[in-house]
Write a structure and sequence with these properties.
Helix content of chain B: 25-40%
Largest sheet of chain A: none
Oligomer: heterodimer
Shape of chain B: globular
Shape of chain A: globular
Number of domains of chain A: 1
Radius of gyration of chain A: 20 Å
Number of strands of chain B: 12
Strand content of chain A: under 5%
Radius of gyration of chain B: 19 Å
Largest interface: A-B, 35 and 40 residues
Largest sheet of chain B: 6 strands, mixed
CATH class of chain A: Mainly Alpha
Structural class of chain A: mainly alpha
CATH topology of the largest domain in chain B: Rossmann fold
CATH architecture of the largest domain in chain B: 3-Layer(aba) Sandwich
CATH superfamily of chain A: ABC transporter involved in vitamin B12 uptake, BtuC
Distance between the termini of chain A: 22 Å
Number of helices of chain A: 14
CATH topology of chain A: ABC transporter involved in vitamin B12 uptake, BtuC
CATH superfamily of the largest domain in chain B: P-loop containing nucleotide triphosphate hydrolases
Number of strands of chain A: 0
Strand order of the largest sheet of chain B: 6-7-8-3-9-10
Chain lengths: 339, 265
C-alpha cells in the first residue's frame, strides 16, 4: 500500500493535471492572443490587475475558451468514470458508458428537439437529457426480474433499446428538412463542445458532478460487484440496491454529458483501459484516475478540434483518431498488464 | 449453529428439494454429499440468502435467514464458490480485502485495520507472499486458497463451500483439505461443504476432525450422521447405482477408512 505522503502527491497530480490542461487551453485558439494578453485577462478577472482591456480579449479568454475547457473536462471525466463503473458492474472490460443506450436515447431526444423546436439549445438539452435517462430506465426495466437485475438481461435490454432509438434517429434524419435540420442533427451526433457557455455549464455540470462524486464514493463497491451477483451478495452486499445506485449515478453523469456535448465515443470505453494499464484494476484507484485522464484528454482533444483546421472538426471524430494510436502504444509498452 | 427446518425449494413448478431437516453444530465439518443435480448447491444458496426457500426455514444462530439482511448473513457465513470467474486482474490483496465488505458502509473504503485482517487471513492459508500478484496469474489451487483467505477475512464463524476442490489437482486438493481441517481444529470454525467425493468426509474423519455427512438424493436427505455410518456400501449402491467397497486400515491415528468404487450397474 502507498504511504500517506505518496498518496497525497498522487492525489495532487490527479487534480492538477486536468486543471493544468484547462489553463493551457486558454492560450490556444484561432483568435490571436499573446501569452501576456491572456494572462492580463486572467489577472484582471481575478482582481490582480487594473487595466482597460479590449472587450474582445476578455470575451475570448473568459467567456469562450474557459467555459469550453471546463465543460470539456467535466464531460470527459463523466464519460470515463461511467465507462469504468459499467465495466466493473457488467464484469466486462469491453463495455462503455453507452451500454444501456444512453447515447442513442439522447441522440433521439436531441434530433427530435432540433426538428420540433428549431434547435433551441434549451430544448435540445432537455430532450437529450430526458430521453437519455429514459433509454436507460427502459433498458433497466427490460432487464428487471423479481427484484434482481441479471447482468445479461441488462445488457440485452441495452441492446434492444439502442436498436429502437437508432432506428428512430434514422427515421428523424429521413424526414428532417435536409437544409435546415439534417445538418444540425448530424453535427450534434458527431459531438462538439462548441456551444459551451456558462449557463449551459451550470445546468449540465450539476448532474455530472453528482454522478461523478457518487461513483467516487461507492468505488470500492464496484470491485465487489465485479465478483458477480452470487459472490457479491455472499460478501454482504445488497446487490439490487448497490447496482441500481451505481447505474443511477453513471446515467446521471453520462446523460448530462451527452446532452451538452453530443455523442463522443471512445472516452467511455478506452480511457478506463488506459487507467487500468497505468494503475491496475482496483477501482479505489482506477475511478479517480479515469476521471483525471478523461478530463485532461477531452480538453486536449478539443483544443486540437478547434485549431487543427480552419473550421472546427467534430470532437467525436478526433477522440478516437487521436486516442487509438496512443492506446496501441500503451498496449505495447505495458504488455496489457495482467490481461 | 444452523438449523434447517422442513426446507423446500422449487424453481417455479420444478421441485429441487423437499422437506429437508438438518442441524449443523458448532465446530464440525458438515458435508453435503449426493449425485449431480441433487440440490446441494441450491440448498447452500438458500443458506446464504441468495435464494429464498419456498417452504420451511433456515435458522442461523436462532435467527431466520430469510429475515436477515445481506451484511448480517455475511458476518455469520462466508462463501467459497465452486468456480470463480476472474473478470479483472485484481491483486490478491484486493480480492481478500473484499471479505471486509460487510463491515464497511456503501460509501466507505477498507481501512488499515481491514488491511491487517486481510493480510492475516492470507498468512493463515500460506499465501501472503502472493499479495501483490494479479490473481489471474494464480493456479486453480492458489486461487481457491485466496478465496478461503477472503472468507477468513470475513471473520465468520461458519465457512460455506460449494464443491471447492472440483478444479484442483491431486496435491492441491489435499492441500485444500489440510487447510480446512486445520482451520476447524485450531480456529474452531464450522464448515459446511458440498462435495462430490465421499472420501473427503473420510479424510476429515480419519484426521480426527468432528465430521458429519448428509446424503442427498431424490430431493431428500437419505441419511445423515458420521461418515462411517452414512458412507456404506448399501447407501452407495442405492444412491449411485454402483458397487463399492469401504476399506479400513489401522494406522497410528486409528481407523483409516476409504471408499473404493468398483463397478457401475
Amino acid at each position: 500500500m502507498l504511504t500517506t505522503m505518496k498518496k497525497k502527491i498522487f492525489l495532487a497530480i490527479l487534480i492538477l493535471t486536468p486543471l493544468l490542461t484547462i489553463f493551457i487551453s486558454l492560450f490556444i485558439g484561432r483568435y490571436p492572443l499573446t501569452v501576456g494578453e491572456v494572462l492580463t485577462v486572467l489577472g484582471y478577472k481575478f482582481g490582480f490587475v487594473e487595466a482597460d482591456l479590449p472587450l474582445n480579449n476578455i470575451n475570448v479568454v473568459w467567456n469562450i475558451r474557459l467555459p469550453r475547457a471546463i465543460l470539456g473536462a467535466i464531460v470527459g471525466g463523466s464519460l470515463a468514470v461511467s465507462g469504468a463503473s459499467y465495466q466493473g458492474l457488467f464484469r466486462n472490460p469491453l463495455v462503455s458508458s453507452d451500454i444501456l443506450g444512453v447515447c442513442a436515447g439522447a441522440g433521439f431526444g436531441a434530433s427530435l428537439a432540433i426538428i420540433l423546436f428549431q434547435s433551441q439549445p434549451f430544448f435540445v438539452y432537455l430532450f437529450a437529457f430526458g430521453f437519455g435517462i429514459g433509454a436507460v430506465v427502459l433498458s433497466y426495466l427490460i432487464g428487471f426480474h423479481y427484484h434482481t437485475t441479471p447482468t445479461i438481461m441488462l445488457v440485452l435490454g441495452g441492446v434492444i433499446v439502442k436498436a429502437i432509438f437508432s432506428s428512430l434517429i434514422s427515421l428523424l434524419k429521413y424526414i428532417a428538412d435536409p437544409y435546415e435540420h439534417l445538418p444540425s442533427i448530424v453535427f450534434w451526433l458527431m459531438g462538439s463542445l462548441a456551444t459551451a457557455r456558462y449557463e449551459d455549464l451550470l445546468l449540465a455540470a450539476l448532474p455530472m458532478t453528482i454522478g461523478m462524486i457518487g461513483l467516487i464514493a461507492m468505488r470500492w463497491r464496484l470491485n465487489i460487484l465485479s465478483m458477480g451477483d452470487k459472490e457479491a451478495q455472499a460478501l454482504g452486499i445488497n446487490i439490487f440496491f448497490t447496482k441500481s445506485l451505481a447505474i443511477f449515478f453513471a446515467t446521471l453523469s453520462t446523460a448530462a454529458a451527452v446532452c451538452v456535448s453530443g455523442v463522443i465515443g471512445w472516452v467511455g470505453l478506452v480511457i478506463p483501459h488506459i487507467g487500468r494499464m497505468l494503475v491496475g484494476n482496483n477501482n479505489i484507484v482506477l475511478i479517480p484516475v479515469s476521471i483525471s485522464i478523461g478530463a485532461s484528454y477531452l480538453v486536449l482533444v478539443d483544443n486540437l478540434a478547434r485549431t487543427l483546421t480552419g473550421s472546427e472538426i467534430p470532437l467525436g471524430i478526433l477522440t478516437s483518431l487521436i486516442g487509438a494510436p496512443f492506446f496501441i502504444y500503451l498496449l505495447k509498452k505495458t504488455k496489457g498488464r495482467g490481461w | 449453529m444452523i438449523e434447517i427446518q422442513n426446507a423446500s425449494f422449487a424453481y417455479g413448478k420444478e421441485q429441487v428439494f423437499n422437506n429437508i431437516n438438518l442441524e449443523i453444530k458448532k465446530g464440525e465439518i458438515f458435508c453435503l454429499f449426493g449425485p449431480n443435480g441433487c440440490g446441494k448447491s441450491t440448498l447452500i444458496q438458500c443458506m446464504l440468502g441468495i435464494l429464498k426457500l419456498t417452504k420451511g426455514m433456515i435458522m442461523l444462530e436462532g435467527k431466520n435467514v430469510a429475515q436477515l439482511r445481506p451484511f448480517e448473513i455475511a458476518r455469520k457465513l462466508s462463501y467459497i464458490p465452486q468456480s470463480h470467474e476472474k473478470p479483472f486482474p485484481f491483486k490478491v490483496m484486493d480480492i481478500v480485502l473484499m471479505g471486509r465488505a460487510s463491515y464497511t458502509g456503501i460509501f466507505s473504503l477498507p481501512d488499515a485495520e481491514d488491511e491487517a485482517i486481510a493480510l492475516d487471513a492470507l498468512e493463515q492459508v500460506g499465501m501472503h507472499r502472493f499479495k501483490d500478484k494479479p490473481y489471474t496469474q494464480l493456479s486453480g489451487g492458489e486461487t481457491q486458497l485466496v478465496l478461503v483467505a477472503r472468507a477468513l477475512a470475513q471473520k465468520t464463524p461458519v465457512l460455506v463451500m460449494d464443491e471447492p476442490t472440483s478444479h484442483l489437482d491431486f496435491r492441491n486438493e489435499l492441500r485444500f483439505l489440510e487447510t480446512v481441517a486445520q482451520l476447524v481444529k485450531t480456529a474452531g470454525l464450522t464448515v459446511v461443504m458440498a462435495t462430490h467425493f465421499p472420501n473427503h468426509a473420510f479424510y476429515f474423519e480419519n484426521n480426527q476432525v468432528r465430521t458429519k455427512i448428509a446424503l442427498m438424493n431424490n430431493k431428500k436427505i437419505v441419511a445423515q450422521g458420521f461418515p462411517r455410518e452414512v458412507l456404506t456400501e448399501i447407501h452407495m449402491s442405492n444412491t449411485f447405482n454402483i458397487t463399492s467397497k469401504v476399506v479400513s486400515y489401522q494406522w497410528e491415528k486409528g481407523h483409516l477408512r476409504y471408499i473404493v468404487p468398483l463397478k457401475t450397474y
